[in-house]
Design brief:
485 residues, SH3 type barrels, Jelly Rolls, eight-stranded antiparallel sheet, 36 strands, 5% helix, disordered N terminus
Amino acid sequence: MKLFQKSLLCLCTSTLCLYSKSFAGQPAKITFHNDDSLRGSFTGITEKNKAVLNSEFSAEPIHFDVSQVSNIVFYNTNFKVPSKSISRISLLNNDIIEGHIIELADSSLKLKSPNLGDITIPKKYILEIDNKISDKEIIYQGPNKKKEDWKLLFSSPKIAGKYKEAKAPWILNDYNITHNSLEGAFLTKASYPDKFSATFNIKNTQPYAPAIILMADLNIPKEIKQPENKLKRMTGRIHHGKYLGNSFVMGLSANTPRLTYYGFNDDHSLALKSFENDIPRGFNRSSTTSTNYEIKVDKTKGIILLFVNNKISARWKVDFNSIKAKGSYLGFKKAQYSRSSNTTQVFISDITIKTWNGIIHPASPVSSTERDVILLKNDTDRISGEIISIVNDKVKIKSTSSKSNNLTIHVDQVKQIIFSSQDEKQNTTSLNENIVINTLGPDRYSAKSLQSKDKKLEITSEKFGNASIEMKNITSIKFPHSDNE
C-alpha cells in the first residue's frame, strides 16, 4: 500500500513522456517487487524511467518508477502471422530472434527481423541458428485470415440449432482459431502425402484441449445401419461416423492420449476401432502457457506418432490397408468426455502441415567447444568445422574432415547450425541484470534500457544495439530487481 501511495505522488511530478498522446494504451497488469499489483491501460515508459498507466481509480495517468516494477503483463490476444522460410537465432544470453538472414560475414550476422527490422549481431554472441521449413515442404500453414476454407460440422441438426452465429463453438480469426468448449467439429482440407506431419500450438484458459481429427473423408452412406448389439452401448461414441465419415480422432487426455477410428464397415454399419498406445505415459499440459503438439503419420509403415513439447508421448500401429480413414480433412472437435464449462476458451494457432522424411529419431545436434556444427535436414548427416559465411542463401564451412576444400551448402538443406561454445562464459550476461521483453511469437529480448515512443518500444541491447518493436507485439516486460530498494 505504501508503494501505491508513493507511486501516486508521481502524479504531481512533471515528466517528459515519449509515448504518443493518441495511443490509447494496452490493457495490462503491473506487478511490483513487493507483490502489489495494479491493472489498467499501459501507455508507455518515459525517458525518466517512469512506467505510465491509465487506471479507473485515477483521473490522471499514474507514473511508476520502473525500479519498483517487477513485470508488466499485457492482455493481448493478437497472434502473429505464421512465417515461412525464416530462421530462429538463439543467443548465448538466452535471447531469441526470428528473421531472414541477409548475410553472415566479417564475424557479424545481418538479420531482417519482422519485429526489430534490420539488425546486426556479432557472431561471438550467437549460440545457434535454426532454419524453419521451406516453402517446398509446406502443405498448409495458417490460419492467416478469417476467409479461409474451414468447415463447421455438427453431429445432428438438433445440436446445430442450439447455436447462433454469435455463439458458434468454433470461430476462425486472423491467425488463430478460438474454441468455446461447445459441441461441433472444425475442419480444413489439404492433400496429404504418404508421410506428413502436423504441428500446432494450443493455449487454454483451463487444463482442457480439444480432440484432433485426422484424415476424415466426410463420406456418409445414404443408408446407415445401426451397430450390432454388442456395440449398442457405444452408440454415443460411434456416432462420429455419421458426420465425419471415416476418420481418426485423437484425444489429448493428460493421462494418456487415445486414438480411435470411426467410420463404416462394408455393409454401411457404423464401425469403431481403438488402438493401443505403445508409449503408455501421460504428459504435462499447463493451463497458463501454450503447448506445442506435433503429429507424424507414415502410411507406408503404418504408424502415427504424437509429440508434446518435442517429447514423444504416443505411438500407434495402424494397418492403413484395412482402415478406410484416408481422407484429406484435418481439424478439431470437443473432447468426448470433457467436463469443461462453456466459458472455457482454447486458442489454436501456428498450424503447419508439411511433408515428413519418415525419420522418427533424428540425429541430435552436438555442440563443441572448438568447432561449429551443421545438422542437415535429412536428419542423419552432420558437418563440423568453421562457418566462414552465409551469403546468397549458401553456407560456406571450412570442414574439419575435408581440410583441403571449403564446403558450400544451400540453406534449404540446413536444419540447424550450432556455433562453437568456447567463449560462452565470457559472452553470457545474466538475465537478472537485464530487462526481458517477451513477444507474441517466440522472440525474447534482453535490454539494458528502454523507452516508448509513437506506439513503439525502443530497446538498447548490448548484443544487437538499438532497435524498436511495436507495443502491440509485446506480451510482457520483466524488470530486474533493484539492489537499492
